[in-house]
TrEMBL record:
It comes from the Bacteria. This is DUF2790 domain-containing protein. Residues 1-23 form the signal peptide. It holds the Pfam family DUF2790. Keywords: Signal.
Length: 89
């Protein structure tokens, strides 16, 4: 085995490991940015709204994913009263 073959094998192995590391970070969902009062959102189109499901009337975590006016996808987390509070007298 020549040194050239050994070096080529090492370079290919490093390239494969590097590619796997990059692919792994792209699949991990980003955490939503916490909303702060007065934060400008500039929402153009809502993609999804998610919240913690519960049957109790309490404050829960929710997030909204949207496209802003510049075309960038944003994910913002906030706290709100659960939907269960709508049905209580």
């Amino acid at each position: 085995m020549t040194l050239r073959t050994l070096m080529l094998g090492g370079v290919l192995a490093l390239a494969a490991v590097s590619g796997l590391a990059q692919a792994d970070t792209q699949q991990m969902p980003a955490k939503p940015v916490p909303y702060k009062y007065g934060m400008p959102l500039n929402i153009d189109k809502v993609i999804a709204m998610n919240e913690t499901p519960t049957n109790d009337c309490k404050v829960i975590k929710a997030d909204i994913k949207f496209v802003d006016k510049a075309g960038k996808i944003e994910d913002v987390g906030y706290r709100k009263m659960s939907e269960a509070c709508d049905f209580q007298n």
